[in-house]
Write a structure and sequence with these properties.
single chain, 378 residues, alpha+beta, L-amino peptidase D-ALA esterase/amidase, seven-stranded mixed sheet, 24% helix
């Protein structure tokens, strides 16, 4: 089965999100969709590839993988760049394009998420997409910096087959939409595992409103890290109790996570870097310990103060929040809360999946989790 979808719900939507199950994370209010798309203009698209079953035949399948694309705004990002930053929590990863973002403080392509060994194909497809939009690239102006990040889905997927092709990437880009965002076993998250269970794509948002000003902070994660024992939900050590009830046969090697944070707050690239660092606090709250083999990357951007590619002025016009402002402090808190809830949504939404060689990641047993949390009066 191959599925391509925009932001609209995928077929696993029968499973509740974290809040649907009655678990409220943090104190700040969410946006209407509780998703990264609550930041005006941000679009998300997925392309999902699920084919075959049984024993692994390297290069042929079974396939459990896909692509997720995040577009910071509907326009041409090369011509109208956005302020951006990258924070590397632990650098065991194969991301492309991050060095230039860290150096120049702008993002000039959509952000594509996929599996580790498909980064090359995704980069090539994203590059072609940008070249078609901008015929002057490499002719009358400079080159382009495709931004592609990854996690390994090799436990469930024939990762050596590099089954993500150009048309999958282009489909995710072209079908990207606003509104509700599909979560769990979808797009780049199709074959991912998290905290001993099935992981994948998750998202959440927060509103920051002070003195008549209001901005959104949205986070989307591709979660693929941690063991069951580490799982914490709303401060409750759920993981050890689940391990007692289910056994410890759900161990997973150190994995990774990609976090994309968006905001419409007027913040500079340096401030985005500070905001991105706070996402590590949200990961710690769910149990992440950032192991040696973990590739933990945060990409952050603001849709305010866009940067034109061609500008006759030698100066960049912009207005940013003060670093000591209450607003920026509240945005820090929003980054922590939205990251924590996005990871939990990736777990709550994901369904049990069997992949190569019968390898299986079971869905988070939500009823069991709620039963455990009741003993803590939560």
């Amino acid at each position: 089965m191959e599925n391509t979808a925009g932001a609209g719900r995928y077929s696993n939507s029968s499973r509740p999100r974290c809040r649907d199950a009655g678990i409220v994370i943090g104190r700040l209010p969410t946006g209407p969709y509780n998703a990264i798309t609550d930041v005006p203009g941000v679009l998300v698209g997925h392309s999902t590839i699920v084919e075959g079953e049984g024993s692994l035949v390297p290069g042929k399948g079974p396939i459990r993988t896909g692509v997720t694309a995040i577009r910071p705004h509907p326009g041409n990002l090369f011509q109208e760049k956005v302020p951006g930053a990258v924070y590397v929590i632990n650098g065991f990863g194969k991301a492309t394009g991050i060095a230039q973002v860290r150096e120049l403080g702008v993002i000039e392509t959509p952000i594509v998420l996929t599996n580790t060994l498909s980064v090359g194909q995704a980069w090539d497809a994203l590059c072609e997409y940008m070249l078609e939009l901008n015929p002057e690239i490499g002719v009358t102006t400079g080159t382009v910096n495709p931004l592609v990040l990854e996690c390994s889905d090799g436990f469930l997927n024939d990762i050596r087959g590099r089954h993500v092709k150009k048309h999958h990437v282009l489909s995710a880009l072209n079908n990207a939409a606003s509104g509700q965002v599909a979560e769990g076993n979808v797009g780049g998250g199709t074959g991912m595992s998290c905290l001993g269970f099935k992981g994948g794509i998750g998202t959440a948002s927060r509103r920051v409103e002070i003195g008549g000003n209001g901005w959104s902070v949205g986070v989307l994660v591709m979660s693929n890290f941690g063991s069951m024992h580490e799982l914490r939900i709303s401060g409750v050590p759920v993981g050890p109790e689940l391990e007692k009830r289910l056994g410890d046969g759900h161990k997973a090697p150190p994995g990774s996570i990609v976090i994309v944070l968006a905001t419409d707050a007027p913040v500079s690239p340096r401030q985005l870097y500070r905001i991105a660092k706070r996402c590590g606090g949200g990961l710690a709250r769910v149990g992440a310990t950032f192991q040696n083999g973990s590739g933990d990357f945060v990409v952050a951007f603001s849709t305010a103060n866009k940067v034109p590619h061609d500008d006759a002025s030698r100066f960049v016009a912009g207005k940013w929040l003060r670093d000591d402002s209450k607003e920026l402090g509240r945005i820090f808190a929003a980054a922590v809360e939205a990251t924590e809830e996005a990871v939990l949504n990736s777990l709550f939404a994901a369904e049990t999946m069997e992949g190569r060689d019968g390898n299986t990641r079971m869905a988070l047993p939500v009823d069991m989790v709620l039963d455990i949390m009741k003993t803590w009066n939560i």
